């Protein structure tokens, strides 16, 4: 049974404690989960009528799934049209994650227009594709070594989400370091009330951290013995209204790599072709020797 990941307990006006999403905590907590809980904590302190539009964060230390996380919110500014919140995520008295959130007063937006880039061409419908989990299990049953697969083990760290790669072979095997882009359909499996905009926005930020590191690793022909971790992450929400329960297309591209750091850009699209969110993430990816594992 999948569960809603947003489980925050209020300690006081600016302090919240959150639990991990995994039903059987046993490893490092998913960074997108920490970011989304931090966003929820910031939202709870925001003025009425203000909505998230920009997020910038740093993944500082790996968090433990089995230990509650404390979120300390700082009110930086409450202006007429914009508000700023700063959130520290803490475990064992150490900061594991820092995030800044900017909110806009929606009622102040008048006489504007929308500009949306062209939706990717020839993208198959998600109903015609298999999930990353099913595809992985099928490959293993065919005799493939799971240690050679790319992609995150999402069934444990993000149980509320389903991912269907447009190109399963590219997702799992890469293409000898040639391809730098990939497309993924992602869906949140638990119904969200249309009025719950906080959960809708935090959930798309939650899933926005998925697979960017995987896309960065497409540039590497050697599949094994790589350290892969997110360093920082930014996201810009373009549409306040969208259906988080429908399939969302995540378009990802690795645009640069140097000094073990890969920069990956992303676009999240609704099925009807509207650009919901843009993302950028820098990931640490490099080969380590087997003796050091």
UniProtKB/TrEMBL annotation:
An MF annotation (GO) of this entry: fatty acyl-CoA hydrolase activity
Assigned GO CC terms: peroxisomal matrix
Gene Ontology terms: biological process: acyl-CoA metabolic process; fatty acid catabolic process
UniProt keyword annotation of Hydrolase present: yes
Chain ranges of the Acyl-CoA thioesterase 2 C-terminal domain: 181-282
Residue span, Acyl-CoA thioesterase-like N-terminal HotDog domain: 24-98
SUPFAM superfamilies recorded: Thioesterase/thiol ester dehydrase-isomerase (SSF54637)
InterPro entries hit by this protein: Acyl-CoA_hotdog, Acyl_CoA_thio, HotDog_dom_sf, TesB_ACOT8-like_N, TesB_C
Source taxon at top rank: Eukaryota
UniProt keyword list: Hydrolase, Lipid metabolism
Quaternary structure and interacting proteins, as annotated: Homotetramer.
Family, as annotated: Belongs to the C/M/P thioester hydrolase family.
Protein name, entry field: Acyl-CoA thioesterase II
Organism field: Caenorhabditis angaria
Species classification: Eukaryota, Metazoa, Ecdysozoa, Nematoda, Chromadorea
């Amino acid at each position: 049974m999948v569960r809603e990941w947003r489980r925050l307990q209020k300690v006081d006006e600016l302090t919240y404690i959150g639990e991990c999403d995994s039903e059987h905590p046993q490893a490092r907590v998913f960074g997108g989960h920490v970011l989304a809980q931090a966003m929820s904590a910031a939202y709870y302190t925001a003025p009425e009528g203000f909505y998230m539009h920009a997020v910038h964060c740093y993944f500082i230390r790996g968090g433990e799934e089995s230990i509650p996380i404390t979120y300390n919110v700082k009110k930086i500014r409450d202006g007429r049209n914009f508000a700023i919140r700063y959130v520290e995520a803490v475990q064992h008295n150490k900061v594991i994650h820092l995030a800044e959130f900017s909110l806009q007063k929606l009622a102040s937006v008048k006489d504007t227009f929308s500009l949306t880039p062209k939706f990717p061409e020839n993208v198959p419908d998600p109903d015609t594709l298999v999930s990353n989990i099913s595809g992985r299990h099928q490959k293993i049953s065919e005799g493939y070594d799971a240690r050679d697969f790319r992609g995150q083990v999402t069934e444990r760290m993000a149980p509320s989400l389903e991912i269907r790669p447009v190109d399963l072979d590219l997702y799992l095997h890469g293409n000898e370091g040639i391809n730098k882009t990939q497309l993924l359909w992602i869906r949140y499996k638990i119904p969200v009330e249309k009025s719950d905009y906080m959960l809708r926005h935090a959930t798309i930020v939650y899933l926005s951290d998925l697979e960017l590191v995987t896309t960065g690793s497409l540039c590497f022909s050697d599949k094994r013995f790589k350290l892969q971790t997110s360093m920082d992450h930014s996201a810009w929400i373009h549409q306040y209204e969208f259906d988080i329960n429908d399939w969302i297309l995540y378009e990802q591209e690795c645009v640069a790599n140097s000094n073990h750091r890969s920069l990956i850009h992303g676009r999240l699209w609704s099925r009807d072709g509207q650009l919901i969110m843009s993302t950028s993430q820098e990931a640490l990816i490099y080969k380590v020797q087997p003796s050091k594992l």
